[in-house]
Every structure is written in C-alpha cells, then in structure tokens.
Specification:
By secondary structure, this protein is mainly beta. The strands form two sheets. Strands 2, 4, 5, 6, 9, 10 and 11 form a seven-stranded mixed β-sheet that branches. A four-stranded antiparallel β-sheet has the order 1-3-8-7, with no helix packed on it. Strand 7 and strand 8 form a beta hairpin. The longest helix has 4 residues.
Length: 122
C-alpha cells in the first residue's frame, strides 16, 4: 500500500511560482502529477520514473513546470513557474509501478493523493 500526501498549494498571482510536494510512504514507484479544474476532467501534467528519472510533460507544462524527485525522501516535486490563471486547479499526485499507467488519469491502478488547491489570480 502506498500513501501520498501533497502540499505546497496556495494562491499566487499570474506570473508567479509555486512548488508542490508529494511525500510517498511505502515502496518507490513511478510518480506523476495531474490536475482537475472545476467542471473539467482530470488531466495529466508531468511524470517521472522511479529509477531512471526519465520525465514526461503535458504540452501545457513544457517550459514552465519541472518535475523532480528526491529518492532518499521518496518525495516528488512540481516546480511551477510563469503561472497562468488557467493553471488554477486541484493538483493530485499519483504513483504506479507501471510507467504507462501512471500517466493515465483514468487508471484504476494508480495510488492517489488527496489533492492540493492551486489558484492563480489575474
């Protein structure tokens, strides 16, 4: 069993930055960030493999967001720069031993955190 706890969300002005953290208990897995805005479906943001630190980003995140992990702490981070109002959403952390599954918002094998709210004001 894996438990994920996100932190770091908050209110920021457009153009600002936030760093989200997701601390995982249990085994180390591939990890990912997703987000869900009100009335929208959950969407993939970024992912990182557990051993080789290979990363993948959604087009909306490329160039602005950086995913990283600290293996010693079993924690993954999402550094978000140049934030826009359309980045406003609840951000969720996910973990999965399968790389193909961890990037799928509809995966029923992902472990999920409780989410952290990010609000970007214009």
């Amino acid at each position: 069993q894996v438990q994920l706890v996100e932190s770091g969300g908050g209110l920021v002005q457009a153009g600002g930055s936030l760093r989200l953290s997701c601390a995982a208990s249990g085994r180390a897995f591939n990890m990912a960030w997703f987000r869900q805005a009100p009335g929208e479906e959950r969407e993939f943001v970024a992912a990182i493999t557990w051993a080789t630190f290979i990363t993948r980003y959604a087009d909306s995140a490329k160039g602005r967001f950086t995913i990283s992990r600290d293996s010693a702490k079993n924690t993954v981070y999402l550094q978000m720069n140049s934030l826009k109002p359309e980045d406003t959403a609840v951000y969720y952390c996910a973990a999965n031993p399968s790389w193909s599954e961890v990037t799928r918002p509809e995966s029923n094998s992902n472990y999920w955190g409780q989410g952290t709210q990010v609000t970007v004001s214009s």
